[in-house]
Design goal:
Shape: globular
Low-confidence stretches: none
Strand order of the largest sheet: 8-2-1-9-10-11
Distance between the termini: 61 Å
Strand content: 35-45%
Number of domains: 2
Radius of gyration: 20 Å
Number of helices: 2
Helix content: 10-25%
Order of helices and strands: HEEEEEEEEHEEE
Structural class: alpha+beta
Mean pLDDT: 80
Largest sheet: 6 strands, antiparallel
């Protein structure tokens, strides 16, 4: 009796292990095709750590706003960030709320990074798309064609993020007109 249950249980376990990542990949691909594109001004930083590989960490400029929620927000709390595009074409925060914005699609679910306890009442958020893994070999990154190791105020850099109804996917990072996603092709 037990032998008859082993194979169906094994097949069910294997199917579940394939279903979860496949669903995640399909959802991300759908979001990249159907989401609204936002450009987030950023300063990419690459610490080049051997443990994490060639990962670029993104420090965004649009990270703070006053909360429209009457509830107190604490570090790590989920928060809905409503977005719009400023006159320069970059994303800006229009509102923060603990509740999902009704009738909107241009918002992302983020986490409270920290809150200022002073009279400004500013809440700083941490976006779920603050890292990008570079597929380029390390030599291509270090050849000098793209420099983002030191903060540079003259560089124009931004992340292209697709957003729809709280979901987000990092599409690319552009540094002075160079795509980091396609860096390996520009060697």
């Amino acid at each position: 009796m037990m032998q008859k249950l082993v194979w169906p249980a094994f097949i069910l376990m294997v199917a579940a292990q394939w279903f979860v990542p496949a669903r995640l990949v399909l959802q991300t691909e759908h979001l990249l095709k159907t989401g609204k594109e936002f450009k987030f001004r950023t300063q990419p930083i690459n610490p080049n750590e051997p443990i994490y590989g060639n990962t670029v960490y993104l420090s965004f400029k649009a990270t703070s706003a006053r909360s429209t929620s009457t509830d107190t927000l604490y570090t790590g709390d989920p928060v809905y960030v409503s977005l719009a595009v400023d006159s320069a074409g970059y994303a800006k925060i229009t509102a923060l709320s603990k509740e999902e914005p009704a009738g909107q699609t241009d918002f992302v679910l983020a986490a409270v990074d920290y809150a200022l306890g002073d009279s400004t009442g500013l809440i700083y958020v941490k976006y779920p798309f603050d890292q990008m893994y570079l597929e380029a070999p390390k030599d291509a990154v270090h050849d000098g064609s793209v420099s983002f190791w030191e903060p540079d105020t003259t560089q124009v850099s931004y992340a292209i993020v697709m957003i729809n109804k709280g979901h987000s996917a990092l599409k690319d990072v552009i540094v002075d007109g160079t795509s980091l996603k396609h860096l390996k092709h520009n060697q």
